[in-house]
Amino acid sequence: MFFHHRLFRLFSHDIGIDLGTCNTIIYVRGKGIVLNEPSVVAVRKGTNDVLLGGQGVGITAKRMLGRVPYKIEAIRPLKDGVIANFQVTEAMLTYFIRKVHNYSSWVRPRVVVAVPSGITEVERRAVVNSAERAGACKVYIIEEPIAAAIGVGLPIDEPIGNMIVDIGGGTTEVAVISYMGMVYCKSLRIAGDEMDEAIANYLKGQYNLIIGEATAENIKIQIGSAAPLEHELTMEVMGRDQIKGLPRAVVIRSEEIREALKEPLDAIIGAVLETLENTPPELAADIYSRGIALAGGGALIRGIDRMITKETRGIPVHIAEEPLLAVARGTGVFLEDLETFADAFEDHSES
Question: Which of 14, 15, 127, 194 is the Cys-Cys partner for 29 at CB 3.0 to 4.6 Å?
Fold first, then answer.
């Protein structure tokens, strides 16, 4: 048994996984981030049968969203940061793990998986089981706020207040961290997906125009904003007329999309304020002087840092470098010093 374990170790590299609702990002120990692909899988409609040849997972599968024959369905097996379809998630993880190991079947890595802080024990166990069945020999679970804070370089091992706001695709994680532990954390199942949905609903209500989720996401990226812009933007959007059923184009303004995003952004601001209100005074003072770190895809929305600063009465907000990669980088730091972190977060590891 010992020989087999050593043999597997020779043919594998430990990996860290940011298993996101929108994207799965993988860090390989000693190599860095080697994979960043959409968490999308193409299956035969009505089944969990993944299309073969690698065409059914990741980037190629995302291109199929809303564009495939009726017999094929492109789905996202995670919702709100947790597994919604166990079998398809397992297939997706298996494909990604084998891909980063050059499709070798001799793969038994140790795996660190980042998960939302608000998940249930059942949801947590589903993540562990999926990773194990995908080939992991041991699984460590780390909460996303901790991973994001480590990934952006916050000194969480010191007894000072560190505040992280991680706006992902399925969840927003707001946490105050001190001395390797979360003092207070708010996990909100309102994030990028809800923003896309708000944009689609706005166009449907204002223009009777029906658009898909890929178009809504593109609008958010191209002209979405949380605060007024120095030069407001416009964009032509193509969709289907709700009444006539025919293709139609409209020109929309960034002011309109800002209005559409108001509700989900207000919910995120509410979580930030609630977290600050529940932070001990000494740590709150640290945050007021050191500022708030902003990570995740939502950090890229224009003006969101200014919006948070305004609503918190002047707390500076620092957007992480490459905010989309913050959680994955955090799992990587965990991996590179696995013995230290595994002891510090022993309550978060699974055998």
Answer: 14
